[in-house]
Design a protein that fits this description.
With 277 residues, the chain is α/β, with parallel strands linked by helices. It is built from six helices and 16 strands. Helices cover 27% and strands 27% of the residues. The strands form three sheets. Strands 1, 2, 3, 4, 5, 12, 13 and 16 form an eight-stranded mixed β-sheet that branches. A six-stranded mixed β-sheet has the order 8-9-10-11-14-15, with helices on one face. Bound molecules: N-(4-carboxy-4-oxobutanoyl)-L-cysteinylglycine. GO terms for molecular function: hydrolase activity, acting on carbon-nitrogen (but not peptide) bonds, in linear amides. InterPro entries: C-N_Hydrolase, C-N_Hydrolase_sf, Nit1/2_C-N_Hydrolase, UPF0012_CS.
């Protein structure tokens, strides 16, 4: 049975420092026998403001951060899922989720489709669309050593439509690299992830940022792997002081048992509401 590793750390505005942390996590996951490691959203950097985000962002091909991650994926012979920023043709950024194979090649690119524009009394207030352009493709699951992987990002977990779309297209796992706020994380994080896993009957893997990135921004952590029954198989420790990993076996046989025993996809009343595909 293949082993998945989910990572958790606190990115700052230093791309060089974040790159070293990710390289160490990739090495450690490979040493533990994982076939694939999942790193958080915005693993390349968390910026202090919109201007800094624009200044730090490059194309995928010109990214020093990605070069380091791709080289280490190849050196450690492990697949990697990672969230990064990417320049667009306009003066904006894509919030991009990549799958890199064990030779260091980018196999799949997903650009976050739901942007986090919220203003909650007592915080947080974040307007992602000020800097970020939304992607316009849900995509098809990518074949990985763990199974067919559907790519999403963070806030996307609030939209079951896209996870059900990916399930309908063959997903056996869904990845949600994240940088969740603490307030919304305490109220919603685990419930959302377990709900997506239960209703789609897929594994859900959510790498996460944790801790204080700068004066204005902190993240909730609780990176986790959830099985298709909704059980939290692994969770990174609540450790603010160092990057951490958690691992779990991916058992597709038990996934198909869940789907056979309770075939919710076949029970849909698409005569009463739209079919998602
Ligand atoms: O800003 C970057 O560089 C990377 N992007 C993020 O951190 C994004 C947009 S601000 N964060 C979220 O989507 C949090 C969602 C969330 O917390 C919720 O749904 O409750």
């Amino acid at each position: 049975m293949p082993l998945a590793a989910v990572g958790q750390f606190c990115a700052t505005a230093s791309i060089a420092a974040n790159k070293l942390i990710c390289i160490e996590l990739i090495k450690k996951a490979a040493r533990q026998g994982a076939s694939m490691i999942f790193l958080p959203e915005a693993s390349d950097f968390i910026s202090r403001n919109a201007q800094e985000a624009k200044d730090l962002t490059t194309s995928l091909g010109a990214s020093e951060f990605l070069k380091g991650v791709q080289n280490e994926a190849a050196a450690s012979r492990i697949w990697v899922s990672v969230g990064v920023h990417e320049t667009t043709l306009k003066d904006k950024i894509f919030n991009t989720h990549l799958v890199i194979d064990s030779s260091g090649t980018i196999k799949s690119t997903y650009r976050k489709i739901h942007l986090f524009d919220v203003d909650i009394a007592g915080g947080p207030r974040l307007m992602e669309s000020d800097t970020t352009e939304k992607g316009d493709v849900v995509g098809v699951p990518e074949k990985t050593p763990l199974g067919k992987l559907g790519l999403q990002t963070c806030y996307d977990m609030r939209f079951p439509e896209s996870s059900i779309t990916l399930r309908a297209r063959g997903a056996e796992l869904l990845a949600y690299p994240s940088a969740f706020t603490i307030r919304t994380g305490m109220a919603h994080w685990e419930v959302l992830l377990r709900s997506r896993a239960i209703e789609t009957q897929t594994y859900v893997i959510a790498a996460a940022q944790i801790g204080q990135h700068n004066e204005k921004r902190a993240s909730y952590g609780n990176a986790m792997i959830v099985d298709p029954w909704g059980t939290v198989l692994a969770r990174c420790p609540d450790n603010l002081n160092k990057p951490t990993l958690a691992v779990a076996d991916i058992d597709l046989e038990s996934l198909y048992k869940v789907r056979t025993e309770m075939p919710v996809m076949d029970h849909r009343r698409t005569d009463l509401y739209p079919k998602i595909e």
